[in-house]
Amino acid sequence: MPPPPTSTPVPAVADFLRDVARSRVLDAGRVERLFEEAPPGKKWPATTLADHFVELGALTRFQADKVLRGHWGGLILGPYRLLCPLGRGGMGIVYLARAGDPPPPGADAAGSQLVALKVLPPHRVQKDERMLARFRREGDTGLRLPAHPRLVRTIAAGEHAGVYYLALEFVRGRTARQYLSEDGPFAVPRAARVFADAAVGLHQAHAAGFVHRDFKPSNVMVEPNGRAKVLDFGLATFRGEPALPDSTQLVEQGYAIGTADYMAPEQAENPVTVGPAADLYSLGCSLYYALAGCPPFPGGTSKDKIRWHRTSAPPPITQLNPAVPPGLADLIAALMSKCPEDRPASAQEAADRLAAWAEPVRATAAQLSTALTTEVLHQAEEKWYASHLAGEEESSEDSLVVPVDPIEPATASSVPSSPAVAQPLDWVLGRTRLPKWAFPAATTALALALALAAGFGWVIARVVARASLF
């Protein structure tokens, strides 16, 4: 897979070798041996040598591209080596990373633990200190959650040179949100299996005293065998937890926290006192989205969505997907009841009821052998570079903190049917994105400046020429 096109000058081979060693992805001795053993036709230029290192598995394409661009720093974060990005999120980039030293040539790479490393860039902390509070809270919660196959495990939380990170269990697959975006609505058996598994994960968290408060399709990982795990407890609350100091509060009075498309009515009113029933409401909204292909209340602003969740009923799921059995439609409606007491008694009860429509459990996911690790890495790199070159952005299914207005009566005409509008993130790879008009405006200004300069030069030349006549 070739690297993305770049205007960065190709470094000298000696500089490339030096920077690989400086990155500490490979030690200087191994870099020297790799160069000495390289065939003569693959030693120059540096891009060809980099391709050779990638072919050998000594570097990943992402690592090689970063070093070729002169960005050799930051490929090591504490005890982890960044292999390639897996995706962007509301707080940073998630990388596929390896714990410990790289395996020696010919060794089984499966012996080194792969993790999903969630990184919070310093500039995000500088913009909003609550980002750091939420990030730390997610790490603390993850380490306190019970170990269970339906929950993504948090392995470690740490900080290195001012950069905060969370090491999470690496789960092959896609989020339920990605499945929906790429493949369309779920078939009933698949939706029932995925969200039955997710309900079991929620039940384990609830039993340990936690309420997720941000359950949604993008926080459900679906493995290749169809099983699912719940992730991202960054907005979770612990029942009976004392009030936090002002500097670490995630919300202020009069604000709602969560994701508007899936937020329970009582969570919008008071996110601090919600119980497990709020997650059941979000489970119902997520099931609705998985089967209908759109959230219960598409379109509108975040405040509109919150108001509709409080006061309006969405179209029946069977109206949007006639294949949904009546019993499953009744369960979704019960999960989305406005009154918490009218919802199922627990997430486990919801899981048990979903099992009636769920597809059979398939074989356990394959262990990450060396060959499978290589395949996962290549797939991740291809997806990242394809999206990066195409300029794709994440959808705006982002968690939010918004002021909540008093409840207003809703009319039938106030419920929209248009699709939700995507709001792109304002950063890529830790750099601030300029407005779309910036480059055309700069180009126009430069052209005008050159034209004025040329005209001024012509006038001066004419004056000098006329003066020379005298």
UniProtKB/TrEMBL annotation:
| Domain Protein kinase: from-to ranges | 80-358
- Domain of life where this protein originates: Bacteria
Query: Transmembrane segments in this chain: where?
Result: 437-461
Q: Which InterPro entries match?
A: Kinase-like_dom_sf, Prot_kinase_dom, Protein_kinase_ATP_BS, Ser/Thr_kinase_AS
Q: Name one GO molecular function term.
A: protein serine/threonine kinase activity
Matching PROSITE patterns, A to Z? PROTEIN_KINASE_ATP, PROTEIN_KINASE_DOM, PROTEIN_KINASE_ST
Which residues does ATP bind?
A: K118
Q: Which keywords does this chain's UniProt record carry?
A: ATP-binding, Kinase, Membrane, Nucleotide-binding, Serine/threonine-protein kinase, Transferase, Transmembrane, Transmembrane helix
Name of this chain's protein:
Serine/threonine protein kinase PrkC, regulator of stationary phase
